[in-house]
Amino acid sequence: MGIIPPRLRPRGRLVIAPKHLGILALPAFVLLASEYVLGNFGNSALVLPDAVTVTPAPLLELTARYRFLSAWFFYFAVCVIFIAIFFSELWSQHSPKSAVRILLGLVAVVAFTMVFNTLEPAWMGSFEAYELLGKSLFVDALSSGWLRACETSLACDDEGAFHGMEFLLDKANHITSLAAAAVIAGMVLALARPQGPHLLSREGLAAEAEILRRAQDASTRYLYCSGILLSVGMVLVLSWMKWPGPMIADPELRGRHAELVNAISLYRGVSYSVLILSYYMPVSLILMVRIERFHDAVAAHGSPEVGAQVMGFDINRIASLEAFKKIVAIVSPILASALGAAVTFEGIGG
């Protein structure tokens, strides 16, 4: 007769240990390091030569604008969905103590990042993202674009579609902070458990196997969510970076600027992949230690039927297809940037 795992504690009983909340700080440091490198070793105040002139082309500008709006709307929807998934799981599976701990940890990390960006220390090299590609190009190419909102608002400052791009990217940054925090916290919460391990009995081993299986499922789920979120984010980044390019009058300069866009998008893709690794690897390693401890206990118990029953969960073996999917999820931002680099649009005279 097989062993039936006992029911885990009822709804809202998973608890995250405070020591694991330190993982939340790792992505913040990766992000700050990425921006530091760009601000101090890149050209964050690019001034394009006078030869880079823009020819007014309403249809080209509108075409690029609608690509941006499509990417922005889709990205916003993905962010809302992932935020909803996280809070749904937090409410249904974790104790109030665990929820308070993870939310306080997120508030601390977000507050640290916001304060750091607000203070803007001289060594950080703060900049607007489009300044890497030449602000004058964006202003010249997009200011002529008509926006209905600018008819009644003085905030546009005669910048037309450029003002619209800034406004929407600002909103995207806000929702990104929440969505990224949600998937990172969801990954860390995979380490939450309803109780300490009880590895001296059949029932305890079976319960531990179920806890570990659910933890691995949760970490894998949020790894895939991270890959999707940052890949769609790369599509949004490429859509606004490529917006003014087709309107550059000189074909040679247009091509060189497109290469610059591709190079910056590759850097963003690499930094996003490192960002995923910064919180996935610690969680994965902690789970690996727990699984090894579990298997040692199964071997020491000396009951082959219990070991066979527990191994039926297949929690320690990673199939080649599963490993491949995880690798793809981690490097998906790089793949998205490479795919975006392969997509080119004809410009004036092209």
Description:
The chain is mainly α. It has helices spanning 25-41, 58-93, 96-119, 135-142, 160-188, 202-241, 251-301, 304-311, 320-342. The longest helix has 51 residues, at 251-301. The termini are far apart. Mean pLDDT is 79; it is low at 1-12 and 309-316. The chain crosses the membrane at residues 21-39, 68-87, 99-119, 174-192, 222-241, 270-289, 327-345.
Question: How much helicity do the residues have?
Answer: 55-70%
Strand tally is: 0
Give the low-confidence spans. Answer: 1-12, 309-316
Structural class, please?
Answer: mainly alpha
The 3D shape can be described as elongated
Order of helices and strands: HHHHHHHHH
What is the average per-residue confidence, as pLDDT, rounded to a whole number? 79
Summed up, the domain count is 1
Task: Count every helix, treating DSSP H or I runs of 4 or more residues as helices.
Answer: 9
| Percent strand | under 5%
**Largest sheet properties:** none
Q: How much is the radius of gyration in Å? A: 24 Å
Query: N- to C-terminal separation?
Result: 74 Å
